[in-house]
Design brief:
The structure holds 2 protein chains of 2 kinds. In chain A, helix 11 runs parallel beside helix 13. Chain A has a single domain, classed as ABC transporter involved in vitamin B12 uptake, BtuC (Orthogonal Bundle). Chain A is globular. Chain A has 13 helices and 2 strands. Chain A is mainly α. In chain A, strand 1 and strand 2 form a beta hairpin. By secondary structure, chain B is an alpha/beta fold. In chain B, 30% of the residues lie in helices and 30% in strands. Chain B has helices at 44-51, 74-80, 96-101, 116-128, 144-157, 174-189, 201-207, 225-228, 231-238, 291-300, 329-340, 358-361, and strands at residues 3-10, 21-28, 33-37, 59-64, 67-68, 81-84, 162-165, 193-198, 210-214, 220-224, 240-248, 253-262, 276-285, 305-313, 318-328, 345-352. A 6-stranded mixed beta sheet of chain B has the order 6-7-8-3-9-10, sandwiched between helices. Chain B has a 4-stranded antiparallel beta sheet with strand order 2-1-4-5, with helices on one face. In chain B, strands 14-15-13-16 form a 4-stranded antiparallel beta sheet, with helices on one face. In chain B, strand 11 (240-248) and strand 12 (253-262) form a beta hairpin. The longest helix of chain B is centred in the middle third of the chain and has 16 residues, at 174-189. The radius of gyration of chain B is 25 Å and the shape is elongated. The interface between A and B is medium-sized, with 30 and 32 residues.
Chain lengths: 336, 363
């Protein structure tokens, strides 16, 4: 790729999520026009509070939701790509270390005790980190992590442990009010988006993604064999810990805000891999951008297709899986 | 650069009684090629991993220009050293150029991207080995020989002073073996220290300046390649009877190792010649044997005999003698050979190795 092509590609990767995001702000049961959106945005920039009903909808409902979708989509895709490099396994997902099950348990506990959404999110975040900490401790043998495989296995065990606790709480929950709330939350939804929630969780996603983006070339070292990786002179342990920490942070924050969002972390990196090859220098920016676009589109579909909202996970799987199969059959696949 | 190992000892923590490496010492200087030679399972790769600091010596140490290797920060060390793994099982979706670029990793900061100079160095390394045409190909689409060369290019991209190869030619065909070995020779002429593992004595003999022969049990023989690689040492280390022959062309004389036959346990020369050990010899004489001759030989060795037990077996028309011998290994081996020289006599020797306690803790 020449320098010119690279610059064009970079512009496209930045512009696409912004353009799709703006467009999706317009869509919804209360239709607003693009000029209205732009004037509301410039109003915000000049410190004016929204005065019309359209501006109110844009500013307090649509915009935070689209921003959230962009963050979650990009973040989960990058976290997935990072985990796939870290475990040199194409099937690794952001949930490999048990963070999704962990965060789910925290959220479900919050919902069970009828706490407000803020408490639910804090609990989800804490319990997500707790699950990963347990995974790390379980996989340690004589004071150190012996292999990446033992870590994946520990993740599976911890994940199923937390899942069974989630099931236990669902079993105990009141079937009239609590159980539907829990089930709906577990299916994933961005409906709770507002600026306060964003302010709580967005920093984790932004920081995690930014660090992974900055390290993107070094992530190429992770899939090498142990000796080769060490012979690059890079602090391998530090690189691994930082990668796992960032990806975990992103995932825990995403689950805390909108429940389990299936498929994005697996699907988007693979689509990018099939199109661009496995160099993380290209894979990470592409995943970030495509993940954001994908999520905004899915969420817009979720809230506009029917009167009631369709849970996100159902849509990501319904749309993602066939598209993935199509790609698999028309490109050379992801032979490792 | 001068790389040296002094009295390196290593056993895996899971099997502490099995000494993999025992008192390994060698050094390699600027422009030298050192071959590490040994049969499968002798610990060649373990030796390389200890050498590079991936495993820790139980005692002894690796030195780089006089500094203990473990005291050098990895980022500094791997700017000067490079490692070329076996090409087997190294398949990834990255392109050759991207893979070679990773050879620059020790020169690129954690949050930085490779600079134009890094790309130039990668391309220059590819060009130097004549691989420019492969730059855009995927690593899992090229042949094993091409991949091995690309891995060498990756090492070169970091402009190292020392390159360590793990069996660089072992999975390659005839032609590619030659290409890889000649490349190594070219690097050494540029002043790069080359250390390579091999199980081909002929390759070590032809390309290496020095050789380290590794036996099962951890003992080593070390010296100039053509002095260490001899018919006897090949028999001792590999259990193969061979002859080393010379072939003359217009330009030069080539020496090659021709393997002749596999030696079985009886014929295997016993290990290191220095220490004396305890042996039990089971000697079986059938009716053709000449007991008087055997007795005469045993008499000669009476100084080393610690026990002797004879048992006639009239129904089998045979005689069994069990001997306990305490002697240097060479002496014991000579005795075995002498006895085997008689018609109708077969000998089996078992060695009881002495524990070398004194050299353990003090180093």
């Amino acid at each position: 790729m020449t320098g010119g092509q690279r610059a064009i590609a970079r512009c496209f990767l930045i512009a696409a999520p912004l353009a799709v995001g703006l467009l999706c702000v317009c869509l919804g049961r209360y239709a607003v026009s693009l000029p209205q959106v732009l004037s509301t945005l410039s109003g915000y920039l000049h410190g004016r509070m929204p005065d019309t009903q359209a501006a109110l909808i844009i500013g307090t409902i649509r915009l935070p939701r689209v921003v959230l979708a962009l963050l979650i989509g990009g973040g989960l895709a990058v976290a997935g790509a990072a985990f796939q490099s870290l475990f040199s396994n194409p099937l690794a997902t952001p949930d490999t270390l048990g963070v999704v099950s962990g965060a789910s348990l925290g959220a479900v506990i919050g919902l069970f005790f009828r706490q407000n959404l803020f408490v639910v999110q804090v609990l989800a975040l804490l319990s997500g980190f707790l699950a990963v900490a347990i995974t790390y401790l379980v996989s340690r043998h004589q004071g150190r992590v012996t292999s990446m495989t033992s870590m994946v296995l520990a993740g599976i065990v911890v994940s199923s442990l937390f899942s069974s606790l989630v099931s236990l709480i669902k079993y105990m929950a009141d079937t009239e009010s609590q159980l539907p709330a829990i089930t709906y939350w577990l299916l994933g939804s961005l409906a709770s988006a507002n600026w306060y929630n964003l302010a709580l969780c967005a920093p984790f996603i932004v920081i995690g993604s930014a660090v992974l983006y900055a390290m993107r070339w070094k992530l190429n070292i992770l899939p090498l064999s142990e000796d080769e990786a060490r012979a690059t002179g890079v602090n391998l342990k530090g690189l691994r810990i930082l990668t796992a920490l960032c990806a975990t942070m992103i995932t825990a924050a995403a689950v805390a805000m909108c429940g389990q969002v299936a498929w994005v972390g697996l699907l988007i990196p693979h689509i990018c891999r099939m199109m661009l090859g496995s160099d993380n220098s290209r894979l990470i920016p592409a995943s970030l951008s495509l993940g954001a676009v994908f999520m905004v589109l899915i969420d817009t579909l979720a809230r506009t297709m029917t009167e009631a909202e369709i849970p996100i996970s159902i849509l990501t799987s319904l749309i993602g899986a066939p598209f993935f199969i199509h790609l698999l059959r028309t490109t050379r696949g992801w032979d490792e | 650069m001068k790389l040296s190992v002094e009295k390196g000892r290593f056993a895996y923590p899971t099997a502490p009684s099995r000494q993999i490496l025992d008192g390994v010492s060698f050094e390699a200087e600027k422009g030298e090629i050192l071959a590490i030679l040994g049969p499968n399972g002798a610990g060649k790769t373990t030796l390389l991993r200890c050498l590079m600091g991936f495993l820790h010596w139980d005692s002894g140490s690796t030195h780089v220009d006089g500094t203990v290797l473990s005291d050098i920060p990895p980022a500094e060390l791997w700017k000067r050293m490079a490692y070329v793994p076996q090409s087997r099982g190294h398949a990834s979706g990255s392109t050759v150029e991207e893979m070679v670029l990773l050879g620059r990793a020790s020169r690129v900061g954690l949050f930085h991207q490779p600079s134009p100079e890094d790309w130039q160095a990668a391309d220059a390394a590819l060009a130097e080995l004549g691989l420019s045409a492969l730059a855009g190909r995927r690593c899992d689409e090229i042949s094993g020989g091409e991949l091995q060369m690309a891995l060498i290019a990756r090492a070169l991209a970091g402009s190292p002073e020392c390159v360590i190869f793990d069996e660089p030619e072992s999975n390659l065909d005839f032609r590619n073996q030659l290409i890889v070995l000649e490349t190594m020779q070219k690097l050494s002429r540029k002043g790069i220290v080359c250390i390579f593992n091999t199980h081909y004595p002929a390759h070590a003999l032809r390309y290496a300046d020095k050789a380290l022969l590794l036996q099962k049990g951890g003992q080593t023989l070390y010296g100039k390649a053509d002095e260490v690689i001899r018919e006897e040492t090949i028999a001792q280390v590999f259990g193969v009877r061979s002859i080393i022959g010379e072939m003359e062309t217009d330009e030069t004389v080539y020496r090659d190792v021709f393997p002749l036959a596999v030696l079985d346990d009886q014929e295997m020369p016993l290990q290191s010649a220095e220490d004396s050990g305890l042996f039990t010899l089971s000697v079986m004489l059938n009716q053709e044997a000449d007991p008087a001759g055997v007795n005469e030989v045993l008499h000669e060795y009476s100084g080393s005999l610690r026990g002797r037990f004879g048992m006639p077996c009239p129904d089998l028309k045979a005689r069994v003698i069990t001997l306990v011998v305490e002697a240097p290994q060479e002496t014991a081996y000579a005795l075995v050979r002498r006895l085997q020289g008689f018609a109708g006599v077969s000998v089996k020797a078992v060695m009881l190795k002495k524990e070398k306690r004194d050299s353990h803790g003090n180093e």
